[in-house]
Amino acid sequence: MILRINGLPSLLNLNLQGNDLCVGVQVLFEGLGRGAAPSLRILNLRQNQIGSDGAEALSAAILRGAMPKLERLHISSNPLGNQGVAALAPGLRSLQSLEVLQLWKTETGDEGVASLVSNLGENEMRALEELDLDYNKVTDKGCVTLVTAIKADLLPGLKYVPLGGVSQDLVCNPATEAAIGAVQHALFQAHVDSYR
């Protein structure tokens, strides 16, 4: 209610991590209109059982201009899947200031990666520096999509793309080491080229 009436115009950081909000996230974002959180820079929604409906509601709120200055979105450890990431993508692509997008452990696969970075427009995701896709379902195909976007200079600010973390209790992405290495090499080469 407070956010809906722009009752916190100076709010910079909203941390809702670990609340199992599930449908509550959808209800929250469906009610946010233009300028609801005009100063919000960091939104943490980790571990809330957010699925595609919640992702769609968040994306729609972003597209309505509810959080125009959002720089960091932490939405890891939610069962988004490819459908949820695809629902979230239009809003994320519209954010001019988005620098960090954490999507680890969200069941994201190749289709989700493609919905984020394929066919980016001239002003889409230009500020993105970190795209955390660790502990997902990204295969070599998704890595090729990332490499293609990086080489085409569609993500000029991108510096960090975790894809192959090591953990005994979590299964990392099924992409091969060579494919993950190709992503890291493309990032390195893009930054070398940017200094020339």
Characterization of the model:
The protein has 196 residues and is α/β, with parallel strands linked by helices. It has a single domain, classed as Ribonuclease Inhibitor (Leucine-rich repeat, LRR (right-handed beta-alpha superhelix), Alpha-Beta Horseshoe). A 5-stranded parallel sheet has the order 1-2-3-4-5, with no helix packed on it. The chain is globular. The mean pLDDT is 90.
Short description:
37% of the residues lie in helices and 8% in strands. The chain is α/β, with parallel strands linked by helices and 196 residues long.
Q: What is the overall number of helices? A: 6
The CATH superfamily title? Ribonuclease Inhibitor
Structural category: alpha/beta
- Low-pLDDT residue spans: none
Strand order of the largest sheet: 1-2-3-4-5
Q: Give the helices and strands as they follow along the chain.
A: EHEHEHEHEHH
* CATH class category: Alpha Beta
Largest sheet: 5 strands, parallel
Q: Based on DSSP secondary structure assignment, what is the total number of beta strands?
A: 5
The domain tally reads 1
Distance between the termini: 51 Å
Give the averaged pLDDT, no decimals.
90
Q: Beta-strand percentage?
A: 5-15%
CATH architecture designation: Alpha-Beta Horseshoe
Helix content class: 25-40%
CA radius of gyration = 16 Å
Principal-axis shape = globular
Query: What is the third-level CATH name, the topology?
Result: Leucine-rich repeat, LRR (right-handed beta-alpha superhelix)
